[in-house]
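Consider the tokenized backbone below.
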């Protein structure tokens, strides 16, 4: 007799969970996605006739989960390496190279830091004090800002760590957890006196021949969800909102669809693969402790403004993959990726770039009209790159409440959520809210969730 597993959420986490479940014979899988399309934050559309990602545009290549899933979904030949990974910081009035050997903005080489020009001469004088100051005892989780400022001063925090963290989480270093966002540094912070020494140790441990840090797919990361869905063989339904989840004697009952004409779906097991807020609503009745913790996970919104220019519009063609902008610069654009430079397969005739707009607490920026956001991107290119032409095409993509914030205490919160769910046989959670927001991290949570469900079905003899 086959078992029926329902997955709530058709982003890459839910689809990866479906694929992993599909390896077991006798499991019928249904994926329910509330929006009109699959993929969540993996989505691509055409700009100036070129397929360009509107959401996540790369995945870590040094974690295996993303590349493995792409290969298993038949996209192994589509994996491509970046043309360059040379990035800069726009700070103190100029583009300056990211110092070599930095670890999430923490310098491991003071000579490289000085050569980069990112930090002012006064700021540079403060940094070496890290090596002679008394230890900053880190016995519990603290904010990234509290620890980095204590060791290296305000400028390294403001002009290196803050923009790098902002580029990943669209968050603020004074709120983000050291344990959750910089785990290797957090571990060393409990034993190493010097933060620079900790960063140096991490940099030295990095394999020298590991290849590129990032990879993408030839048709964009947006091509991954459909391939995974097809490979899973799941019954995938879009435009179906799950409003209720209740335990039954034999498993779970889901109520979906509009209130006037609800659809009841019976399942032997359920994987919840949606962001924290909708997950909290679904678990409120059956797992209230997990629901309460999920409700406390805050999310940041952002927008991506994609612009396509004639190559000749740039007085000097961009040479690097892009640049970050520290919040202290007071600019609306927080990062720029020169997509067609970073990914040469996008073509040589145009310069295609993506401007990221909005951090936690800057939701007002996202309320502007599309034309205003495009104008912000154009102004950025004019001021920083000297572009005087109009783009030949543009696209604005808004990701409201898309990026979970790993606040201080996040790992303990996740442990409490999982402990509460552990008492509910046939229920599992996965997604970006837990162990990392990158694609490989999401896939890893999906694999763990699928394994939990398969173990449950095996214990039932199914």
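A designed sequence for it:
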């Amino acid at each position: 007799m086959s078992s029926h597993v329902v997955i709530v959420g058709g982003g890459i986490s839910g689809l990866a969970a479906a694929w992993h479940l599909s390896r077991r014979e006798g499991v019928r899988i249904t994926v329910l996605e509330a929006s009109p399309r699959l993929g969540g934050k993996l989505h691509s559309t055409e700009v100036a006739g070129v397929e360009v990602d509107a959401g996540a545009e790369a995945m870590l290549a040094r974690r295996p989960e993303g590349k493995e899933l792409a290969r298993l979904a038949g996209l192994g030949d589509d994996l491509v390496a970046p043309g360059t990974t040379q990035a800069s910081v726009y700070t103190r009035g100029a583009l300056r190279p990211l110092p070599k050997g930095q670890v999430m903005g923490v310098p491991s080489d003071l000579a490289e830091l000085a050569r980069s020009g990112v930090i002012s001469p006064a700021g540079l004088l403060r940094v070496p004090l890290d090596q002679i100051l008394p230890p900053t005892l880190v016995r519990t989780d603290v904010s990234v800002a509290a620890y980095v400022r204590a060791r290296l001063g305000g400028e390294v925090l403001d002009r290196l760590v803050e923009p790098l963290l902002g580029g990943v989480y669209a968050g603020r270093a004074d709120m983000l957890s050291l344990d959750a966002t910089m785990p290797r540094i957090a571990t060393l912070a409990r034993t190493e006196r010097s933060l620079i020494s900790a960063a140096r140790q991490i940099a030295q441990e990095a394999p020298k021949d590991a290849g590129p840090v990032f990879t993408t797919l030839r048709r964009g990361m947006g091509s991954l969800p459909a391939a995974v869905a097809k490979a899973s063989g799941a019954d995938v339904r879009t435009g179906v909102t799950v409003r209720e989840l209740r335990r039954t004697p034999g498993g779970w009952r889901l109520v979906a669809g509009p209130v006037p004409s609800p659809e009841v779906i019976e399942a032997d097991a359920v994987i919840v693969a949606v962001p924290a807020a909708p997950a909290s609503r679904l678990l409120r009745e059956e797992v209230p402790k997990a629901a309460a913790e999920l409700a406390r996970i805050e999310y940041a919104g952002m927008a991506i403004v994609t612009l396509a220019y004639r190559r000749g519009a740039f007085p000097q063609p961009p040479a690097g993959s892009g640049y970050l902008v520290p919040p202290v610069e007071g600019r609306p654009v927080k990062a720029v990726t020169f997509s067609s430079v970073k990914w040469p397969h996008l073509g040589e005739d145009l310069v295609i770039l993506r401007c990221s707009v909005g951090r936690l607490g800057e939701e007002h920026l996202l309320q502007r009209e599309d034309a205003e956001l495009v104008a912000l991107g154009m102004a950025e290119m004019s001021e920083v790159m000297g572009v005087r032409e109009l783009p030949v095409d543009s696209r604005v993509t808004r990701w409201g409440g898309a990026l979970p914030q790993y606040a201080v205490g996040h790992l303990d919160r996740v442990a409490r959520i999982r402990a509460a769910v552990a008492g509910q046989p046939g229920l599992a959670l996965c997604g970006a809210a837990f162990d990392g927001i990158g694609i490989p991290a999401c896939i890893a949570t999906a694999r763990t969730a699928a394994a939990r469900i398969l173990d449950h079905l095996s214990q039932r003899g199914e």
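The chain has a mean pLDDT of 95.
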